[in-house]
Design goal:
This protein has 5 helices and 5 strands, in the order βαβαβαβαβα. The chain is α/β, with parallel strands linked by helices.
Length: 130
């Protein structure tokens, strides 16, 4: 019997290897396919060949930061529908407002518990028509 559900893919954009590995492990443990990269430029390379169901992006990245990446993706009709969740250690309200203004659908502070991470991800995966 074949399921009509496909494995949902999440793109994790995080320059810190420990945070990248943690988020990837939590999400893979819940059955998601993960593609993890350490820069916005690498994320753009992935997006040129694949369309994830959700992007989890760190705000502070080397080179292009997560807010600029979000603005670029939201300005492109090909990537505009993909929900983006900001994941950052900068958790003041001003940072959350900046993330939302750039086009993020959600915001999660680091370090995040597995439950908090999954709650935020599921809120936006489901909101995207799943």
């Amino acid at each position: 019997m074949e399921s009509n559900a496909r494995t949902q893919m999440i793109l994790v954009v995080e320059d810190d290897s420990a945070n990248r590995d943690y988020a990837s492990a939590v999400l893979e443990g819940e059955g998601f396919e993960i593609e993890a990269v350490e820069s916005a430029e690498q994320a753009l390379g992935v997006l040129a060949r694949r369309k994830p169901d959700l992007i989890l992006v760190d705000i502070q990245l080397p080179g292009m930061d997560g807010l600029e990446l979000t603005r670029r993706l939201k300005a492109d009709p090909q990537t505009e529908p993909i929900p983006i969740v900001a994941m950052t250690g900068q958790t003041m309200p001003i940072h959350q407002r900046a993330a939302m203004a750039a086009g993020c659908a959600g915001f999660i502070g680091k370090p995040a518990t597995p439950t908090a991470l999954m709650d935020e991800v599921m809120a936006h995966i489901k909101a995207d028509g799943q």
